[in-house]
Every structure is written in structure tokens, then in C-alpha cells.
Amino acid sequence: MGVAERRERERLQRRNDIIDAAERVVFKEGFDRVTMAAIAEKAELGKATLYLYFKNKEDLLFAIFLRGQEILFKMVDDSLKKAKSTRNKIEILLKVIFRFQSKHPDYFNLFFYFMTNRIEFSKDTEDHRRNEEMDQAFLNKWILLVDEGKQEGIIRKDLNPLPTVLLIWMQLIGMIKIYSVIEPEVNQLFRIKRSVLMNEYTKLIFQGILDT
After folding, report:
1. 22-50 exposure pattern, b = at least 16 Cβ within 10 A, e = fewer
2. Residue 197: enclosing H or E segment and its boundaries?
3. Are 198 and 145 within 8 A, CB to CB?
4. In the chain, what are the domain boundaries?
5. Is the CA virtual torsion 196, 200, 201, 205 positive or negative?
């Protein structure tokens, strides 16, 4: 391995170490309250070193966001391999988001934070380019499923795929976020389990989009 390759590997390792440390601080302290100084202390680095790798706190939060996104999309791809029909694929896509929130609540909360706040992060970075690629690939999976369903005659032909997908996505994320907060009360007052709620939600979505 040449000097340049070794330096690049060391740079990437240091960057990952910073993200690891930032995750621990951010998920404990909260997205708004955490500071670069606190992250630097946790990473046992000078604050100036952090700014060599990340322009600001928002870029560092975005790097954590990207990690969660990669985990989610891998879960989606792995789950879709088991699908047997277009309808089954749609059901899997709905339920895998619910499962992701259950397994990785901190990443999910960071997703919601970015979706519901105007976070000013750098748009000319490799992280941002990677995020755009994954977002487009995920959106395309949904649009393709709607198109396939329309061709198979199981999804209403009057539906416009892009608005339909965006509405389902926004509704699903909002519902999961609210449920994650009130789950104890729902269980105590109504004896409704997470799996039951997800199944009923899936039925409602299918009732809205299926050509029956």
C-alpha cells in the first residue's frame, strides 16, 4: 500500500471515529443541545480537528443521518428479496419502516428531525451526493411498484405514482413517529399491539390504492 492510500485509509478511519463519537453524544444529549465541543471531547480530539472533517455540526449530524439511511435501505433490499408479488412488495415496504423504527429508534428520530426542520448542511459533499442517490433509488422502487401494480390491474389506474408514493411515505413516517411517543398509552388503554396497528394501517393503504 502506497503512502497516499494509507493516508486516505487513516483519514476515513478518523472520520468514522468522529461519527461514532458524535452518535453517542447526539443520541444521548439530543440534536439541538449537542455541541461540537462535546463531540470533540468524546472523540478525544481537538475541536479544530473536527472542523477539518466537517464544516459544522449540521454536516456531522447529516453524516449520522446517512448511516441510518444506509441501514434502512439495506433492510428494504434484504426484505424485498423474499417478496412473491407486487402486493407483497408494497406490504413489505410499509412494514420494514415500522421495523426500522423499532430496531433503530435513534436513527429514526434523526430522520424525523431532518424532515421536520430546515437544517442548513453543505450540498457539495460526498455525503449529500450519496444521500441523493439513495433517495432517488428508494423513490424509484416505490414508483415502479405502483406502475407494476397498475399494469397488473391490482392498483387503480387513475393514481399518479409520484404524489401517491409521497403521500404514503409522509403519512407513514408521521404515524410511526406519533405511535412511538404514545405507544405505552395505546397499549394500556386500548390493548392494541404494534403488529396489530401495522396490519390495520396496511389494510387502509391497500383499500385506498387497490383497484377493487
Report:
1. bbebbbeeebeebebebbbebbebeeeeb
2. helix 194-209
3. no
4. 1-53, 56-209
5. positive
Predicted confidence at residue 119, as pLDDT, reads: 84
Out of 3.90.226.10, 2.60.40.290, 3.40.190.10, 1.10.357.10, which CATH number does the structure's domain 56-209 have? 1.10.357.10
The CATH fold assigned to 1-53 is: Arc Repressor Mutant, subunit A (1.10.10)
Model pLDDT for residues 86-109, shown as the tens digit of each residue: 989 999 989 999 999 999 999 999
Mean pLDDT by 10 residues, the chain (212 residues): 81 91 92 90 88 93 96 94 89 92 96 89 89 93 92 92 92 93 90 89 90 72
pLDDT for 211 equals 78
Beta carbons within 8 Å of 93's beta carbon, 6+ residues apart: 76, 79, 80, 141, 142, 145
Q: Are 157 and 212 in contact (CB under 8 A)?
A: no
173 with 115: CB under 8 angstroms?
yes
Instruction: Residue 64: name the closest of 128, 110, 9 by CA.
Output: 110
Mapped onto helix, strand or coil, the DSSP state of residue 210 is strand
**What pLDDT does 1 receive?**
65
* C-alpha cell belonging to residue 32: 439541538
171 is written with which cell numbers?
A: 403519512
